[in-house]
# Entry
Amino acid sequence: MERNEFLKICGGTCLGLIGMSALLQSCSPAYYAQASVTGKQAQISKQEFEKIKKGEISYRKFVLLKVADLNYPVIVNRFDENTYSALLLKCTHQGNTLAVSGNILTCSAHGSEFDRHGNVLQGPAAEKLTLFPVTTDEKFIYIQFS
Ligand code: FES
# Structure
């Protein structure tokens, strides 16, 4: 086997393994956070985003919430320690429930895609997702459902 051929095969194998790793991470089950809902406000501890493994803390990019008054789950995204967003997982095209796939929210009905800020990446949906106001303090995240 020629050196160039060997390097091509090794490079392709490495890219395949990296792609498989990313795919497996995106397939991990979504985490539903515990929230205290009072009236039209939910309160979530920032600790709901923590994952502790072998003494090391890492952070989930998002958690999901079930809110009794809403017919769709809510995704609460963590961008950094003090920056969060909360979006209704309802496709703005015809109302299908969205799925989370890595950093993209996808609709299996007709293929629309949204980013974690709710912006449309791919139609047929044309409108941004419903975004709920979020505030934080040192320990908690507060989401206002209007
Ligand atoms: S309902 Fe989501 S793309 Fe049509």
User: Anything to note?
Assistant: Residues 1-29 form one domain. The radius of gyration is 19 Å.
